[in-house]
Amino acid sequence: MLDTCKLKSACNLPFVYNKKINTAGTSNAAVPLADPGMYQLDITLRRGQSLAARDRGGTSDPYVKFKIGGKEVFRSKIIHKNLNPVWEEKACILVEHLREPLYIKVFDYDFGLQDDFMGSAFLDLTQLELNRPTDVTLTLKDPHYPDHYLGIILLSIILTPKEGEHRDVTMLMRKSWKRSSKFQTQSLRLSDVHRKSQLWRGIVSITLIEGRDLKAMDSNGLSDPYVKFRLGHQKYKSKIMPKTLNPQWREQFDFHLYEERGGIIDITAWDKDAGKRDDFIGRCQVDLSALSREQTHKLELQLEEGEGHLVLLVTLTASATVSISDLSVNSLEDQKEREEILRRYSPLRIFHNLKDVGFLQVKVIRAEGLMVADVTGKSDPFCVVELNNDRLLTHTVYKNLNPEWNKIFTFNIKDIHSVLEVTVYDEDRDRSADFLGKVAIPLLSIQNGEQKAYVLKNKQLTGPTKGVIYLEIDVIFNAVKASLRTLIPKEQKYIEEENRLSKQLLLRNFNRMKRCVMVLVNAAFYINSCFDWDSPPRSLAAFVLFLFVVWNFELYMIPLVLLLLLTWNYFLIISGKDNRQRDTVVEDMLEDEEEEDDKDDKDSEKKGFINKIYAIQEVCISVQNILDEVASFGERIKNTFNWTVPFLSWLAIAAFCVFTVILYFIPLRYIVLVWGINKFTKKLRSPYTIDNNELLDFLSRVPSDVQVVQYQELKPDPSHSPCKRKKNNLG
């Protein structure tokens, strides 16, 4: 290759992108170059404009591939239903020479079918000037239809020499969370470089307060705004505020900070439109490197490419206690460290850092009998351990169906009602990782220090898949802190998947809501039968009870009755007369699973069904979600009283006792007066406080019937017991 001076002189040639780079099929391979070292290519994929429509609805689901020398080095995320997608993704690529151009290809993602080609372009790397940021506009072309206009792709590129680098350096590819299954759950593309940097260095807490004077995007002169946040692969989406240009969100999100110098949070505002793609309102950014730590910053950000402002509170705090180690390094086996952890979460430290509820240690020991994912009859399994938004990974054990990881993961517990998710994937070097199995374990159901074999489940957590995983888990927490945290909103998870429309899911949610409604209907019929004297003894007893209660009624009797109901159900359970029934929900979920499997064989039929209702798809998804919310609300109330989660039921008993005493001794007008004063002065005392409903926050921790089935532990095959395994080894 040319030396640095010759390269700079070559780089002074004019940038003629439309002629030299954008013509599909054009290459600069004939340029004689001999490179003595390596080059680092830092690329930021900005956005696309006026891309080609490939779907029946007049939109596309575009994503971008970068290739060098015929090898794929980067793949972007999918932007759904958008011809002007905004990616803002970064890729760092090491190239051995500049002879091969960078080949950019854009595709439309089609679920279950071959993705549609949307155009391509070449970027001649020899024309880039060293150490200088360059904004590049590439016009997409189709070699078969060279006259068709397919839109443009905007990039920012920096080319820097890496003199003295070894030639066998592995190409660095950004960790890509890509959709790899029919359920579009996230999977991983991993390398050793990524594993070294997966521990975060801090937490960025963002409170989205409000928007001011946003741009009107609807014909009524208003908008239905919502906001998207992105920091690396982490994404959040705010709730939608209907028909307003001055929305009040009052939502809080937490991001992990991986880089010491900070990072850039990309913020975009959108207007929600049912039945068509959402309108872009504007964008802004927050440079975290410019903010001081351990301090809350109020930011009023002007929206670019649009109108209005967004008001945020941003706080950077030190990293939580997360770690990965081998089995030889065990915090709980070290007596001093264990005592320190127990002291940290002792009852005496109730009001010290309320967000730090407890400590979780997970030993990922091994797996057995995993599913075959490769043509060689083996798999390359690795394990992903998740607690809310905290995600850590093991190393990959290559060509093995019985891998041993022997790793210890530690987490800070922010909510004792969180669910630990352990997922096993098969790593593929050239594409997304394959799902092998998953388990979901509520923290409150864990038995400390016990090594257990968990049967791996399918993606829906409704039934078993092949293999078991051996885990040993310890949970230490402060019960008072955990109770207080129950009364504040749950932590939201990163946006990992968009809502999908499913006939089976819609029907299941309808049946769940129908069962909840039928409980109320049956209760109404029962009460009405008392008035009709269908059963004279029952009606007489109801009449006497009515007279007694009305004559002696006091307000404190309401929580007292609920307290008695909880106590009655508790004694039923301990006496062996548990009447909790979820067979119908289990059957519905298993039927969904079977029909989803049938969908794989009849994908074209399913796609045809989706296309027929495309115009009302979002309305159907909204109905589906509303049915789920209503059904879940009723099921959570029921599960509170039938002791599905004892911790929450005991907490409810404590609350009812307190309310009964308060209502008995304090006149109602004083209680209402205190409530009203607090409500009226809340905004004056704390202008940026996030409103919440403690009762709804409590119920959000109670699992619905569907979640109870998902979290239910399956019984392992006796052949997988540790004793049996030892005997087999001896044999």
Q: Can you summarize the main beta sheet?
A: 5 strands, antiparallel
Q: In terms of structural class, how would the helical and strand content be classed?
A: alpha+beta
Task: Give the tally of β-strands.
Answer: 27
The number of helical runs is 16
Family: Belongs to the MCTP family.
Transmembrane segments: 540-573, 647-675
Domain C2: 20-138, 184-301, 335-456
Keywords: Calcium, Cytoplasmic vesicle, Endoplasmic reticulum, Endosome, Membrane, Metal-binding, Repeat, Synapse, Transmembrane, Transmembrane helix
Description:
The chain has a 5-stranded antiparallel beta sheet with strand order 19-23-20-27-26, covered by helices on one side. It has a 4-stranded antiparallel beta sheet with strand order 4-1-8-7. A 4-stranded antiparallel beta sheet has the order 3-2-5-6. The longest helix is centred in the last third of the chain and has 30 residues, at 503-532. Mean pLDDT is 78; it is low at 1-36, 164-197, 594-608 and 722-731. The protein is globular, with a radius of gyration of 29 Å. Helix 6 packs across helix 7 (536-552). The chain is α+β, with helices and mostly antiparallel strands and 731 residues long. The protein has 4 domains: 38-162, C2 domain (Immunoglobulin-like, Sandwich), CATH 2.60.40.150; 202-318, Immunoglobulin-like (Sandwich); 335-486, Sandwich (Immunoglobulin-like), CATH 2.60.40; 509-588 and 612-711, no CATH class. The N and C termini lie far apart (62 Å). It contains 16 helices and 27 strands.
